[in-house]
Amino acid sequence: MASLTINGEEHELQEPGEMPLLWALRDVVQLTGTKFGCGISECGACTVHVDGEVTRSCVTPVSAVEGKEVTTIEAMANDATGQRVQRAWLDLGVAQCGYCQGGQIMAATALLKENPEPDEEQIREAMNGNLCRCGTYNRIMAAIKRASGGEDKA
Amino acid sequence: MSQDREMPMIANVSRRRFLKGLAASSALVVAVRWDPLLAEEEEKQYGADAMPGGWVDNPNVFIHIDADGIVTVINHRSEMGQGIRTSLVMVAADELGADWDRVRVEQAPADQDKYGNQNTDGSRSMRHWFSPMRRAAAAARHMLEQAAANEWGVPVEDCRAGVHVVRHEPSGRELGFGELAGSARELSIPDRDSLTLKPDGELRYISRETGMVNGELRDDKVRPPAIDGDDIVSGSAVFGGDIILDDQLFAVVARPPVYGANLKSVDDADALKVPGVVKVVTIEGADPPAGFEPLGGVAVVAENTWAAIEGRRALSIEWNLEAAGDNAHYDTEAYRKALVESAQSPGKTIRESGNIEEALQKADRRVEATYYMPHMAQAPMEPPVAVVRFKDGKGEAWAPVQHPRATREGVAGKLGLDVEDVTVNVTLLGGGFGRKSKPDFVMEAASIARQLEGRPVRVQWTREDDIQHTYFHANSVDRLEAGLDADGKAIGWLHRTLSPSIGSLFAEDPEHKAGFELGMGFNTMPFDIPAIRLENPEASAHVRIGWFRSVYNLPHAFAIQSFAAEMAEAAGRDHRDYLLELLGPARRIDPATFNDEWNYGEDPERYPINVGRMRAVVERATQEAEWGRELPPGRGLGLAMHHSFVSYTAVVMEVEVQDDGGVIVHRADMAFDCGRQVNPERIRSQLEGACVMGIGIALHSEVTLSEGIVEQDNFHQYHIPRMEHAPRDVRVHLVNNDPDAPMGGVGEPGLPPVASALCNAIYAATGQRIRKLPVADQLAG
């Protein structure tokens, strides 16, 4: 049993504390924007923010996030940086199938909050844990650059 | 396609059936469709005409207009990232004159009788549906114009549809599409022959270069935003696993570790003690050839996915491996060696011209090489997942499937229902790449649902399940031998290809590739060489073999295009010049003369093997890449070309090989000719993605088996490309956007030449030939 704060809302979970946050989000709280891709922290599809830090929810037990702020892709529209990243994603037509893109956007948003103007090497390092089988990496790179600098680009 | 073949058949379809499930307020009437079953049998059918279910161009089926003016376009093809939900809707909206902001898309359920063919594979959606969709929209536009003419009591010739309105030209009066929808639906559908399609100059959405063009954003005021874009970036897009119904249960399945093995015994006592586990049930599997049938096994059903996974961990299962026969001893390395050995001896002759023995004998130089491509897993980021409910004698499925009709039939079979009593809702696919052409995972869900008394169940494949139990890309050995004369000119070409066939999935193992498999770049090899022999010795299947994006084109292109570079080297010639010489003069080849009766299902007259188009993409890619330019040490340029899915691709890669054997792709130039381009932005992104996937195929991706068991189980062992592997710069050069050029495929044809271009570049950088994929650590040390 655990008490979680997800996107600012309190949730009381009856499930065991060792349940991975991913499945608590998807099956119990029914926030399905966070995706299952590998279950072993190898692909990044399940990326969320815990107290602002990039976290792979598939290997994070719910007991580990009690008392912390969990933020998912569903809340990015209410986040200034998240919005900018989403806008850049749309402007550059990043998504193909779209399945991994929630996790990509969560990773990109966390990066830009920490480092508003990352260079290519820093972007590559931050995003290397997020797999995209459609191969949208070049557009992801371009979109992060577009969203960087803390201001909207025309 | 002759006019005769396009004549409509009036099928006996009742109005009531048509209106079922549609917005009755907006539905237009009358059924006009093409059904190959009704067609005259003596004439061979091609393209969409030849597909099961044929095509439909009835506006009632595809276009609905509500009184408030909202236009809903029904998309009946599966969306897996290729963008069909956007591109096909662009076609309809453009021809209709709809304002993009007032256009919606609705995904059709599986119903081939109503929508025509829905099997989304073979890079066919746009080339088969561009014309029917345009006609459906044109018919709807004519009906709106007629409705306006009737309303105003004026000649229809004076009424023209503009953007979401019909305008009476002489008076300037206008009526919106929404205002006209009600009366338009009472009109009969105009005769297909009477339809006038919009001239290209009046099209606003299609065939325009908007969005990202080689790193530069081209803004265009009328750029239609991608249909699912907002939902994807906000996390609200609905994929297969995102369906949660009332009272839903969650399951994972333990499957036999070897193809053909089955369940001996299971002890589920510990599994049932796991909190949240509700039930453990068995799923019957099929013996090989298993087709689309599930592998069978034990399903743990629980209140959530995690409990099901934990429950599965607690099962004690004994498998009957003897049932798998030889498959239980399948070892991919031993198999590779055996195929390499077999490749030394002649096999079934597939194509022959000239005298190959004589040519090789009199050759001044002989070049010989053997290439290998391993098994691979498609590994879409969304592993297979499906929800099925069986209640009150009806079945309903929600699943990310490429082949809705096979899914519907498979689910009906598992539930013991008529197909009409099963509804298949097609969700977005989190990638397909051929994996989701097979509905086995939905049939698993149906098998479980049948044992759950009305509660819906979601079956989730874990990544381990996916990598260990997919339908694998066929591993392949290709041996090539060429004879060159004193000038280095090719005078003989002997190619033997050995791979297990997808045919082994559906019938007794044929041990030879089928026509459609050979037609993927093997017998369609276009080189202009006097003596050619192509052979296909035997190879047996020991796992489920299935489609993987671009399928057998992958090994064929890798071998042929790598070998062409080796021949150029042996001849002391520049690779590009030599490749163009091998291709020979621009000409149109009837595929039948190459013993290819398949030709991707297309009419050989409209879609010959076109050497001119091959030469053009080679010339464009090399020109853009500044072929021949000086590079720093450790870097090289590599080239490859391949035609597949009736499109043409050439790739030049600039590669750096680092001291530790690491490979960086600095730049990729891809020239691509798919004929008329409907949505250039998505064509570009498909090619960019193919480039990345091809790099992964070249460098990393391999599934191996020992004792019939897959040795990799997740992304730490089965490697797919990451951002670090993407080209630092990728440029796509689209050629031949001619409205009259026959439309080719887009989703697959970018992929086949990539691995060869990369390996040729590695050779240019290091002098080391890569003949066995993946590169992995071959360049280290």
Short note summarizing the structure:
The complex is a heterodimer of chains A (154) and B (781). Chain A is an alpha+beta fold and 154 residues long.
Give the topology.
The complex is a heterodimer of chains A (154) and B (781).
Chain A: E1 2-6, E2 9-13, H1 21-28, E3 47-50, E4 53-56, E5 69-71, H2 80-91, H3 101-114, H4 120-127, H5 137-147
Parallel strand pairs in A: 1-5
Antiparallel strand pairs in A: 1-2, 3-4, 3-5
Helix pairs in contact in A: 2-3, 2-5
Chain B: H1 3-6, H2 15-19, H3 59-62, E1 63-65, E2 71-75, H4 84-96, E3 103-107, H5 112-115, H6 125-152, E4 159-161, E5 165-168, E6 174-176, H7 177-184, E7 211-213, E8 216-218, H8 229-234, E9 249-254, E10 262-267, H9 269-273, E11 277-283, E12 297-302, H10 305-313, E13 316-320, H11 332-342, E14 348-353, H12 356-362, E15 365-373, E16 385-391, E17 394-399, H13 404-415, E18 422-426, H14 440-449, E19 457-460, H15 463-469, E20 476-484, E21 490-498, H16 515-518, E22 531-536, H17 553-571, H18 575-583, E23 588-589, E24 609-610, H19 611-624, E25 635-644, E26 647-657, E27 663-673, H20 680-699, E28 705-706, E29 709-710, E30 730-734, H21 754-766
Parallel strand pairs in B: 2-3, 9-19, 17-18, 21-22, 27-30
Antiparallel strand pairs in B: 1-2, 4-5, 5-6, 7-8, 9-12, 10-13, 11-12, 14-22, 15-20, 16-17, 16-19, 20-21, 23-24, 25-26, 26-27, 28-29
Helix pairs in contact in B: 4-6, 6-7, 13-14, 17-18, 17-21, 20-21
